[in-house]
TrEMBL record:
Gene3D superfamilies per the UniProt record, alphabetical: NAD(P)-binding Rossmann-like Domain, Regulator of K+ conductance, C-terminal domain
One Pfam family of this chain: TrkA_C
Sorted UniProt keywords: Ion transport, NAD, Potassium, Potassium transport, Transport
NCBIfam families (alphabetical): PRK09496.2-6, PRK09496.3-2
Domain RCK C-terminal, chain residue ranges per copy: 141-223, 366-446
Protein name: Trk system potassium uptake protein TrkA
Organism: Prevotella brunnea
GO cellular component: plasma membrane
Domain RCK N-terminal, residue spans: 1-121, 229-346
Gene: trkA
Molecular function as annotated in GO: potassium ion transmembrane transporter activity
InterPro entries, per database record: K_uptake_TrkA (IPR006036), NAD(P)-bd_dom_sf (IPR036291), RCK_C (IPR006037), RCK_C_sf (IPR036721), RCK_N (IPR003148), Trk_Ktr_HKT_K-transport (IPR050721)
Length: 446
């Protein structure tokens, strides 16, 4: 598969590194030579120094026979123009990163498709949805709904109050139990567990269950004492903060702390009256005390600086805030943030990559999410009639090491799987992949 990426900034560079590992034919275009020089020499890709909106550059890159053209430069207009040009030169699919929320409205999607843009991606909107999921369940690090919530994946940090520590999974998570443990992060190690593995104190465990059993998972994980989030302090008033605040439910009381006075004035104009905007520094402990940090259930740090966000979340925890969420765009800090017990970590590059990646798979893939904490992907595959996975029960299918089935949705009903489960064509199947070439996983469903 041939892929052209226009823009060698944060998202483009990360995408190039991620996709090159999967042996795709990658060409990266950027007009700034310094951006291209930052690309690791070990990565197998071709770089072209040129404007992404140059017709000659797109022709030289081979846009006419490109499977996917991705425009993720910092300039929205360039992304739209480059995708339109690539489409008319022959690119099969195009993706443009945009900054205008108006473009994401459903009634505008057909307009952009007529221009030749297959998908629009607004990373801040995608990040806002993850933040909202983190706020709705203060005791969960990460939540992912499958097929509208028929199945639910919950990433939970295990403390002393957890009732299922140090017991073999085959004894606590068997075929008749209402949950499966599909992945474990222990220190810096990712484990795709078997029946003899056990859960340990401070593990980050990923539970697959159905919506009805979420209260049961909360009980056995020892999280019933966590209060629901009502009062929220957001540090930083950038685009991600705006998109997040706009979709937070009405029952949440929200305060946004922003250092820049002009930005505060703009926030006051675009946010609802019930959302309080405060001009100040979210690291100022006197200000936090004055604004009621001790009675706050969630602290969300969304400044452009990862170190600032991490330190601010640590300070909030010292004041007793249970739920902290930090934007950490620098991958070098992700593991550190996790080891410091920050809570939910938001990385727009990883979120955007998950969204774009599903366009690369030939199987009927409804959704893909990159689980940054365990460096793994979880995807919803829909098998076709006669595919490998529909021919035998799961116990008789030899999956690659690091690939496991989390559950499936048949019709509108979510269900967990056992060795005797027979997957049928048309099911939505949740698949975990850790260090597995996604094309190998895809082959089971085609």
């Amino acid at each position: 598969m041939k892929i052209i990426i226009a823009g060698a900034c944060a998202i483009g560079t990360y995408l190039a590194q991620l996709l090159a590992r999967n042996k795709y034919d990658i060409i990266l275009i950027d007009e700034v030579p310094e951006n291209l020089e930052k690309i690791d020499s070990d990565i197998d890709l071709l770089t072209i120094e040129a404007k992404p909106t140059s017709i000659s550059a797109l022709k030289d890159a081979g846009a006419k026979d490109t499977d996917l053209f991705i425009a993720v430069t910092p300039k929205e207009a360039d992304n739209i123009t480059a995708c339109t040009m690539a489409h008319h030169l022959g690119a099969k699919k195009t993706v443009a990163k945009i900054d205008n929320p108006e473009y994401m409205k459903p009634e505008n999607q057909e307009f952009f498709k007529r221009l030749g843009i297959s998908r629009l991606i607004y990373p801040e909107v995608l990040a806002a949805k993850d933040i909202l999921n983190g706020l709705k369940m203060s005791w969960v690090r990460q939540r992912w709904d499958v097929h509208g919530g028929a199945l639910v994946m919950l990433g939970i940090k295990l403390r002393e109050s957890c009732q299922i520590l140090d017991k073999p999974l085959k004894n606590i998570s068997g075929p008749e139990d209402p949950y499966h443990i599909v992945a474990i992060k222990r220190h810096n190690e990712t484990i795709i567990p078997g029946g003899n593995d056990t859960l340990k104190l401070e593990d980050l465990a990923y539970f697959m269950t159905t919506k009805n059993y979420i209260p049961y998972i909360r009980k056995i994980a020892g999280k019933e004492h966590y209060v629901d989030v009502k009062n929220v302090i957001v540090m930083g008033g950038g685009r991600t903060a705006v998109r997040s605040v706009k979709i937070m439910p009405e029952y949440m009381n929200i305060k946004v702390i922003e250092r820049d006075a002009e930005r505060c004035q703009y926030l006051n104009e675009i946010l609802d009256e019930g959302e309080l905007v405060i001009n100040g520094d979210g690291r100022d402990t006197a200000l936090l005390t004055q604004e009621g940090i001790r009675n706050t259930q969630a602290f969300v740090a969304l400044t452009p600086n990862a170190e600032t966000n991490i330190l601010a979340c640590l300070a909030a925890k010292r004041y007793g805030v249970r739920k902290t969420i930090a934007s950490v765009e620098n991958f070098d800090y992700v593991d550190m943030a996790a080891n410091l017990d920050i809570g939910t970590i938001i990385n727009k590059k990883a979120i955007a990559a998950s969204y774009i990646y599903q366009m690369l798979l030939d199987a009927n893939v409804d959704n893909v999410k990159f689980l940054m904490s365990v460096d793994a992907d979880v995807a919803e595959f829909i098998p076709v009639q006669g595919s490998k996975i529909t021919k035998k029960p799961i116990k008789d299918i030899k999956f690659p090491s690091g690939m496991t089935i989390g559950g499936l949705v048949r019709g509108e009903e979510g269900m967990l799987v056992s060795g005797n489960t027979q997957i049928e064509a048309g099911d939505t199947v949740v698949v975990f992949c850790y260090n597995v070439d996604k094309k190998k996983a895809e082959d089971f469903f085609n």
